[in-house]
Amino acid sequence: MEDPRVELRLEDVSRAIQSGQAQYDAILLDVDNGPEGMTRRQNDRLYDIWGVRRAHYALRPGGILAVWSGRPDRRFKARLRKCGFTVDEVRVHANGSSGRRHVVWLATRPAENPL
User: Fold this and answer.
1) Which residue ranges in the chain fall short of pLDDT 50?
2) Helix axis angle, 49-58 relative to 74-82, nearest 10°?
3) Architecture of domain 13-108
């Protein structure tokens, strides 16, 4: 947090993502229990096709959207790819090496080609 390149913003994540094109190097979502609005129905807008497109638009070329989930979701992974992301699906244990396995999607906006 001491790094001068870090900016901490306390606001609605959906509004922050919609703040403009190429604003972020990374967007990290650990809002619900996966890519659906479980805690609040309004959170669905983060994970639907339009929400993923907005995240892609808000990231700089080479930027990463990271989404935590309690379980795999093939449809969400396909949605990320459909919106132009390169996707890595990382399986992690919840509690060290013996806990239940969770998923983190690392979706990278491709770097733009130099002219």
Assistant:
1) 115
2) 50
3) 3-Layer(aba) Sandwich (3.40)
